[in-house]
Amino acid sequence: MKKFITLFIIGFSFAALSALPPGAQQDREISAIKKSREAKKLLGSRITSVKQSAQSEGVYSGYNVYEVKSANGCRTTAFVQYKSCGRASGFTGPRCFDLRIGPIKACRAPMTGR
Fold this sequence. Notes:
- Helices cover 31% and strands 32% of the residues.
- It contains three helices and four strands.
C-alpha cells in the first residue's frame, strides 16, 4: 500500500510540473498566427499586432479568436480551434489546435504624399 501511495504522489507531482504556465498557451497561439503563411499572404504585409478578442468556455474543447493587424493597415480574424492531441487522460501540456485565418475585415486606404 505504501508503494501505491508513493507512486501516486510521484505521478501526480510529475503531472502538475508538466502543466503550462497561464500565458504559455496563448503565446503558442500568437506565435503560430505570426508565422502563418496564410495570414501573411492574405494581409499582404508584415503582421504588427495580434490581440485576443474572444474566448470559449470549454475545458476540453473550444476556441479563441484573435484580431490580426498588418503594417499596411489591413485587419483579419484568426480562429484557433482546439482539438484532441491523442494524449492519455490526465496528461497535461500544450493544447493542440487548428488555425484558420478569416477573410480581410478592412484595409486602410494608402496615403498619398503631396
